[in-house]
Amino acid sequence: MKKLLLSTAMLAVSALPGFAQGYTPDPNAKTGGAITITYKDDVATLDPAIGYDWQNWSMIKSLFDGLMDYVPGTTELRPGLAESYEISEDGTVFTFTLRAGVKFHNGREMTAEDVKYSLDRVTTPETQSPGAGFFASIAGFDAISAGEADTLSGVEVIDPLTVKISLSRPDATFLHVMALNFASIVPKEAVDEHGTDFGKHPVGTGAFKLDEWTIGQRLVFAKNEDFWREGVPYLDALTFEVGQEPIVALLRLQQGEVDVPGDGIPPAKFQEVMGDPAQAARVVEGGQLHTGYITLNVGIEPLDQLPVREAINMAINKTRITQIINGRAVPATQPLPPSMPGYTEGYEGFSFDIEAAKAKLAEAGLADGFTTELYVMNTDPNPRIAQAIQQDLKAIGVDVEIRSLAQANVIEAGGAGAAPMIWSGGMAWIADFPDPSNFYGPILGCAGAGEGGWNWSKFCDENIDAMAIEADSMTDPSAPERLEMWSETYMKVMEQAPWVPVFNEQRYTMKSERMGGDDALYVDPVSIPVNYDYVYVTE
Amino acid sequence: MAGYLFRRLFQSALILLGVSFITFVLLYVLPADPVRQIAGRSATAQTVENIRQQLGLDQPFLVQYWRYVSGLVQGDMGRSYLQKTEVSTLIAARLPASLLLMAGGIACELVIGLTLGVIAAVFRGRPLDQGLMVTSFVAVSAPQFVVGLLLLYVFAVQLGWFPIGGYGTAAHLVLPAVTLGIMGSGWYSRMMRSSMVEVLRQDYIRTARAKGLTRARILLHHALPNAILPIIAMIGIDIGIFMGGIVVVESVFGWPGIGQLAWQAIQRVDIPIIMGVTMVSATAIVLGNLLADLVTPMIDPRIKLR
Predict the structure, then answer these.
(1) Is A47 on the interface with B (CB under 8 A)?
(2) Chain B CB contacts of A251 below 8 Å
(3) Which CATH number fits domain A65-187: 3.90.76.10, 3.30.40.230, 3.30.160.20, 1.20.810.10?
(4) Beta carbons of A133 and B253 less than 8 Å apart
(5) What is the largest CA-CA distance in chain B?
(6) C-alpha to C-alpha distance for A341 and B115, rounded to whole angstroms
(7) pTM attached to this predicted model
(8) DSSP code of B159?
(9) Across the interface, do A125 and B54 touch by the CB < 8 Å criterion?
C-alpha cells in the first residue's frame, strides 16, 4: 500500500517566500483545444460557499482559488492565493501574505479585504453554507454563527496583501480547511450584484471562468487568460453536458464525442470495458479517500454488547462483497482508507471466521442468534450488497431484515439513531480533505453522535475523543507523532468495533484517446473526475 | 357554453388545489429532513436550526401549506433547496423542450397509429391485419426505457443516422419522439381500426360504393373523416399520459425537459421542484381533459355540453 505523506518542508514555522510549487508542469503539454465532460444530473450551484457534491466540487475548484491548494494529483498542500504564510509558535495565529496582481474574472485585483469578506460570508448563517462548521476554530466563529456578530473577529486585514487569522484553539487541519472550496476567495461586488443567484453567476480567480450556462443542457468554461499561475490551464474550454445517462455517455465516448464521462463507467458495462484491451487502456485506476462501512448502533440491543459487534465483524465476507461490485474496491480493515496519512500498515482487522463469530455470539449469550434490521440506500449495487450481508449474518444465526430506502430517508434514520445497522453505500464517507481527523469527528466522535449527526453508530468514547483533540492541537498536520496518534485512535476505535469497515472503493476514470497528462491527474484525490487545470489534448 | 366553461374551470381549480394539498402532505410526512440535506454532513446544530428558520420549515404544517399555496397563486413556486434557484426559472427553462417533445410524440403516434389502423381495417381479418394488431400489442406493452435504449443503439450508435441523445436540432427530436409515440401508436392503431371497421359498415359507405366511387376515394373522403373524429378528442387525454412518459424518455435521451428535472429532484428529495413539476403536470392534465371535452362537441354535433 502506498502511503502519502504531506511534505514536511512546507510546514516549517517560518516565512516561506518563493517556495517551490512542488509540481513541474508537463513538458509535453499542448496548449489549446477543448474537451467535453458529461454528467447525468444538473449542476446544482457553482457558489463555493454552497457547492458540496462531488460533481460541482472540481468545477468550483477550477473557477475559484483559496489561500491554500494541493499539488496536482496528490494530497500535498501548497500555497494558492497566499504566496507564503507564517504560523505562530503556539499554532494559533496564521499570517498569510497574498500574491500581488491576482485578478478576479471581472478584472479587479484581489486584496486582503476579499479574504476577510469571503470568510465572513461563508460563516454567516444567512449564507446557509454546509461548510461553515469547518471554520469553527477561527476566533469569533461562535459569535457570527449565533448571529451576534457580522464579522469574524479572528480575521484581521493588516495591509492589502497581508491577512492575519487567529484561532481560538490550535487546529492542525487549518491549512487543509483553507484549501477547501468553502474557503475560496470571492469578490464582494459580484456577490452583491447577483445575491442568492451568485451560484449561477460565479466570479472567482480560477483557471477557468464561466462562459455559458444553459439550464439542463450545458455549461461552458473558458480559459482565464489572466490566470495567476504561469502556463496553465492548457485547455481553451471545458464543456460540461448534463442530463446524459452514464450508459449513453459511454456510447458517445466510444464514438469520440465525449472526452470524460463524469459519472464514470456504468456498473453494467464495467466488465465489458475492462475486458476490451483498447478500452481498458483508456481507464485510469487509483485509490480514493473513501471507506464503505456498516454501522453497528451501540445504543440498540443486542448491538450494545461488544462480543456481538465483534461477531458481526468476523461474519462479513468482505472479499465476496467486493466481487459484487466487480472488484472495484479493496477489502478494508479499518476506518481510514490506505491512501490517507495515518493509515495503520500491517493491521489485519477482524478476519472472516464463521466459527469464531459463533463463539463470540455464544459469549454474549446469543448462541441462537437474534433478529435485527439493516438500512440501505435503494440504488444499485447497495441492495445487492445488503443481501450479501444478510446471507453472511444468516450463517451465524442472525436474521437481518433489509430496509431499502431513498438516500435522504436512510440519513434521517441514521441521524435519529433509529437504525440498528446501516450499510453506508451511496452515502459513504469520502474525505473532505486528506487528513485522518476527517474520518473521526463527524462519523465516529461524540460530536456526531447527537440527534441528527452522521455518527450512525452513536458511538461516543470520551477517552478516544480526548486523544483526537490532542492530535488535532498539534501545529504540524503531517508530524509523525500526530499521524501516529491518529493511527492509535483508530485502533482504539476498532477495539470497540462500532463499524464493520467493508471496502475502500477504487476510482476508475475513463478518458478519450486524445486526452493527455499524467495519470495522477485523472485520479486526483481532490478533483473528481479529473484536474481540469492540468490535463490537455494531444491533437 | 359559457356557463359550462366557467363551471369546468372552477372544478379544475378545485382539483389543482386538491392535488397540491395531497402532494404537500405526502412530501411533508416523508421521513427525510430537507434541512439536513441542505446543511450537509459537517453542519453544527446551530447551522441546522438557522436554515430551518430561514426556510420556514419550523412552522406548523398548515402554515407551511398556506404559505406555499398563497405563493403559488402569485406565481411564486419557491426556491429549489439544492439548486438554489427559483423553481419557476428552472421549469420555464425546461418547459419548451418538454412541449416540443410532446408535440413530436403526438405527431408520431398519430401518423404511425392512424396509418396502421386504416391499413388493418381495410385488410381486416386477413394476415396483415392480424400481424399489425400483434405488433400494436407489443408497442403498447414495451417499456419505454428499453425501446429508447434499443432505438438509440440501433439508429444512433450502429447506423449513425441520428445523434446519440442531446437536444438542439430536428435530428435530435426524432428518436425521443418515436419512443414516446410508440406506445400511443399502439392504442391509436387499435382504436382507428375499430372506428374504421365501424364506419365501413355504415349505409352511406355502401351508397358511395353503389355510386361507383373508387375505393381510394371512399376511404379518404367518406370513411376516414368520420372514423377519425372520435380519436381526435383523445389527444387531450394523451397529454396526461405523456407527462408520465417524458420522465423516462427525457432521462434516456438526455432531453432537457421537466421530466428529467422531476426525476433528478425525486432522487435528491428537492421538495420545491417536485411540488412545482407536479403542479405544472397536473395543470397540463386538467387543461388537456378540458380541451378534449370542449373539442368533442365541435367535431361531433350529437354530443352537447351542459
Answers:
(1) yes
(2) 152-153, 156-157, 164
(3) 3.90.76.10
(4) no
(5) 88
(6) 69
(7) 0.84
(8) S
(9) yes
